[in-house]
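Hello,

Following up on my earlier ticket. Below are the two sequence lines again, exactly as submitted.
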Amino acid sequence: MNAKNRIRESAGDHAFNLFVLVFLILFGIVMAVPMIAELAVSLSSKIASQTSSIGLLPVDLTFASWQFMLSNVSLWTSLGISAASTALVVVISLLINAMMAYPLSKKHFAPVKALMLIVVFTMIFKAPTIPYFLTLRGYGLYNNFWAMVIPQVISAYNLLVMRSFFQTFPSEIEEAAEIDGCGKFRMFFQIVLPSSKAVIATVGLFYGVGAWNQYATPLMMIQDTALFPLQLKIHQLVNAASGDIAAAVKVSTANYTNETLGAAAVIFSMIPVLLIYPFVQKYFAKGAMLGSVKG
Amino acid sequence: MKKLSSRILGLLLALVMMTAGMSIAAAESAETYPDIEYWFTNEGFLPAEVGGAYYNLTKETIGVGVYMPYVDWNGGQTYREQLALRVAANDMPDIFIYNNGIENSMILDGVALDLTDYLPEYMPHVWEAIPASVWETVKANDPTGQGRIWTIPDVTTFTRHGAYIRTDWLEAVGKEMPKTQEEFVDVLRAFKENDLNGNGAADEIPTGGRMEARWMDYLFAMYGVAMYEGYPEWDVYDGQITYSAVTPNMKEALKFVSDLYKEGLLDPETLLNSAGDWSGKFDSNRIGVYYHIPWVAYQRLQGIYDFTGGAVKAQVANLPQISAEGYEGFITVKPTGNSGKMVSADVAKDEQLMKAAFRVLDCQYNMEYRDLEYGVEGMHHEVVDGKKVKLPEDKATQELLILQTPGCQVETVDVISSRLEAIRTEENSWQIDESLALLNGNQADGKIIAADGMPSSVYDGYEDIQNRTLYVEYISKIISGEYDLDKFDEFVDRWYSIGGTEVTERVREWYAGKQ
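Thanks for your patience. The regenerated structure is below:
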């Protein structure tokens, strides 16, 4: 009976696994096709992109778009600015988030309710663009590198994710540490944080991707091209091929369009995220489930 | 001996003092101006920053350093947003361009400078270059109702648009230049049926246009429909100024265009083509009749030349504006643009700054400084045999030419011709010749429409009408055959009911005032 059951189960399992495998492969293809198509566009010529006949393979192969992008020195400066601001956002926001989320996870901490109300308030109500701009400008962030860091440092949603995680942290461990004479700070930095790698990686990734992709705030705050983060720089480069002013008398020898440049830009800005993702993925899968089940 | 040396010394001293005095006087006569932040269209060029090559050029040439941070144009949208932020922060650029009706709110908010009294004295070249009739229109459009001049509009004094036809194809099918609608359709059929590009595929496109039925104005114009780059315009129909899209002329034109579509004489992708798609089709040697800005045809001819590996030097000529039977065809001309330049009210706080701003604007209209259009030597142009020749556009290395086309000076056939000459090289000479011929060839077909200079404020509160949302929906479906032509009457009724009546009233009121 038992053996029979096992066989039937494993056959069912097998079918299920096969289904999952096939499904994931198909899903993977669906994900990959647009990227391959974009890559093909980025390697196609101006006329090919204009006659819109590009599938998964480049038509009339040329590296003109890539050459235009990569030969631009300021692109690399912008890459550095984006990398620096992203790194700063991740480090600072993780520190501040953890330090705020931890006390908020404690029921006996008196102002929890009031503080949570303030946090949730920012999730629901957003400042309109112009007052927001004037506030940041008032802080001296106009044309300032920190405009890409400070406004990104705390997000209510990420704070809640972290708080939920800390709420599930076994209080027995903390009690035991306390009995051994461990102070609050030491407990936080040496016991709680080291056992919270999953949530740190997850929230760090959220902040990192958000900071890397940020566009609206820099567009508003940064007009000095020397301070452009990657996304703004890419937008500038892609725009370089658009021809709004039809009547302008000019000579153009470019073998790219805003479409091919845009495709190259998409691939280019995706690469860093693509390189980092596999390393945090194992935490990410775990972390995304955090707080969904409370003990 | 001692006496002599002291005399020489005295003489020298006197000389030194005299020259010093002279140089002080010289410094006083050449005024020094503060820098001017001037916001202009930038589509990806490097910013012209303080101390940069272009800034230095303007400082040397006109005595005022002109600069602009990088502000993305993005069809005007990002530009307007960024400008609004700077207005909110009380830190406006000194001079800026306006479009899309933002000028009215700026004037009413008090952030624009009233130029009326300054123009004749400080900007005589601007004052004289722009026709008096245009100034009258500007005054009539003053949103404060006081007849003041707040804007310097972009002015075009000639016919900008027109269709051109592949004369090498015409010759190949043995046809004459069409003069009537019948002959025109006959030519289109011949273009479709013969493999004129010789690639073995029946991929020739007799004619067509772009999405939203844009850039095929000449087909509508055969029925006297005033149309500007796909935007129906206001002109006098039945003795009254009326939106051309709701006239019986439009219905007839739609019948004609949808018939062309049905027969395959219009690009089947007409209603899908982006700007790049459409010009790309011409460049790939497939289009017979193309409606655009004729003088930039050299770019298209170069496109075909490149596409065919130098095998085809396409020949084009103006297609005369054809009139359908019983109608008077014309190309819509609007000398007074809906865009132009304004000065920040803040510059009036500093007299030198104000003078500098006026000087920059005046120099833009002063032919003496025409060479500013060539930009910086080595960056924007090179000197060949003592003549300046523009270098190919390269946005990775070139700074934005702020004091440049369009909108710089008043555009006339002469100005455009000289711009074309500026890019003439041995290789593209034949293309420039064709462009010049096209520019000069259709001037007689243009007609200044009644709505010239009409402010976009007539649409306030009726953005759907301004954006022609309903129009695009109906016209696209009628052309593609999804709707019968009878649906046009429904469109007219709906258009009037969603605000067309009110807008029409405003336009008629404005027009009565203008007259």
